[in-house]
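Here is an idea for our session: we take a single protein and study its fold together. To get us started, please write out a protein record for me. Start from the sequence, derive the backbone structure tokens from it, and show both lines together. Go ahead whenever you are ready, and we will take it from there:
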Amino acid sequence: MLTATGPRADSFVFASPGAPDVVVHACVPARLGAGTRLAVVMHGRLRNAADYIRAWGAWAERTDHVVLAPRFDRASWPGAHGYNLGNVFSAADGSGRLLPTARWSFTVVERLCAHARSAFGLGEQPFALWGHSAGAQFVHRFLLLRPEAPVRSAIAAGAGWYTVPDRRVPFPYGLAHPRLAFSTHEVGAYLRRPLTIMRGDLDTLADRDLRRTPGAEAQGRDRFERAAHFHRRALAADARCAWRLVDVGDVGHDWERMAHAAQSVWEDDLSSSAVLVDA
């Protein structure tokens, strides 16, 4: 495990019982204290966690965060179902068998956070969670399928498609699935979790990586439209929905620029919280 000897990016191997090991890249502030927080960033389909962590080093030091970027490699976590659908089912469309929760990529991240809090002496405080593209898909489904995970704030940036909070729409585009029985209460609790849906206002290119199935096309022509569709369906499902939709100006499908936008959002949120506490 890393030690807090100075501001740097480093890596370690995290072993989660019942699941393949995951390499975790990390930024650690020079000093750790009672106020040090934890944040996790989720890579896109390129599985380039080492690149992602480099965009978070200065922010980690400036805002007193330990930042972790786990890498879910293609061999152990294949395809969309292995990573951004959480490895919940053995097939991408949910038609396969339901896998043990210990094998879920969602569970690995939750356990990683518990491990990091203990190892770095961060206490039991909630963590922040950000992901771009496939990582954004991971983030919004993590909140759904790990409802007890202590998330302070989650940002899903530039997702290509979503699992909408509608029990009439078949999984993975909605919540209807014979092995996933979501109650009205559970859906309502999900909609009140702290999620920001982030989209670049230039993320309108229908590139070859954008899913083109009928279920995805029903959500819009591009990532920009699909983000609005997801937010709109959430508000329609529950007027008390706490989610917000944030547009980032002059940005396309660019993970690094979206990372910096997310950092600004979190800094604003932290400033607002500090003002409320001081008041």
Observations:
- The beta strands are 8-14, 22-28, 37-42, 65-71, 127-132, 151-157, 195-200, 244-248.
- The CA atoms of residues 16 and 111 lie 7 Å apart.
- DSSP finds nine helices and eight strands in the chain.
- Residues 1-7, 275-279 have pLDDT under 50 and may be disordered.
